[in-house]
Design goal:
single chain, about 250 residues, alpha+beta, 2 domains, five-stranded mixed sheet, binds molybdenum atom
């Protein structure tokens, strides 16, 4: 479902994190930094970045900007939930609404591992990331999704970020409720204790600090809230290699 009047932001998602930039600026961490704390970027990396985006030689893979996650938070905060206090709400059009504890996600529900790439719409990508968690379909089966569902919506406990998948997308075997990535528990900066990982789509679909999964039957609410970046004009269907990717995007 498309936003009714798509207006493409002037810059891709990561360049509009004004709030977060302001926070970084206040902390003196550097306005152009997209990483946190000790991992702040060097000036060199900022200069090299445009090169890596248009590189046909593949040599830029050896440059330090490549192959590494940038840490993003549109709110400018790093929300936190301990394992003990974490709950994942599953509700909406399901027979058994639930508030899952971390043990449900890590142990009770069927576990799936996959090794797949992560690609941000601005051009950076990390190959062969190891992921572990519960395939969304398995979680929806556990909650007893009812007939007539059209979409699944996701909320972050950052209080702002939302995402949406169509039911067909949500039932793919490569859409994961992830509690491990990069060989260990999903860290706070990567959206832990539990984040979404939508393997075939750009990174903005992979919502961090997952708080709530709601099965919906469609309608007006989705037109007004298709997702955080989608509200700003980004494609609701964010297939990698398709949709509104710009490889000339400033990052
Ligand atoms: N809650 C939340 N989830 C988010 C974002 C965000 O700012 N807030 N950024 C998205 C974007 S654009 C990308 S590319 C990935 C980045 O994941 P990382 O911060 O673990 O590298 O998270 C996605 N999920
Ligand atoms: Mo992104």
């Amino acid at each position: 479902m498309e936003p009714s009047t798509p207006v493409l932001p002037e810059f891709p998602p990561e360049d509009r994190r004004v709030g977060r930039r302001a926070v970084l600026g206040m902390l003196g961490l550097g306005a152009a930094g997209v990483l946190w704390g000790a991992k702040a970027q060097s000036g060199l990396e900022r200069v090299l970045r445009p090169l890596t985006l248009n590189d046909s030689t593949g040599l830029s893979a050896f440059l330090p900007t490549s192959g590494r996650f940038r840490i993003y938070s549109v709110t400018g905060t790093m929300p936190s939930r301990t394992d003990a206090e974490y709950r994942l709400t599953v509700d909406g059009h399901v027979e058994r609404p639930a508030r899952l504890a971390i043990a449900d996600v890590r142990e009770r529900l069927p576990q799936t591992e996959m090794t797949k790439d992560f690609q941000c719409v601005t051009g950076w990508r990390v190959d062969d990331v190891e992921w572990k968690g519960v395939v969304l379909k398995d979680l929806l089966d556990d909650a007893g999704m009812m007939p007539g569902a059209s979409h699944v919506r996701f909320w972050s406990f950052d209080g702002v970020y939302t995402e949406t998948l169509t039911l067909e997308q949500a039932l793919r075997p490569d859409v994961l409720i992830a509690h491990e990535m990069l060989g260990g528990p999903v860290t706070q900066e990567h959206g832990g204790p539990v984040r979404l990982y939508v393997a075939p789509m750009y990174g903005y679909k992979s919502l961090k600090w997952l708080d709530r999964i709601e099965v919906v039957t469609g309608g007006l609410q989705l037109d007004s809230d298709p997702g955080y970046w989608e509200r700003l004009g980004y494609d609701v269907d964010a297939w990698v290699g398709d949709s509104n990717y710009r490889d000339d995007a400033p990052t």
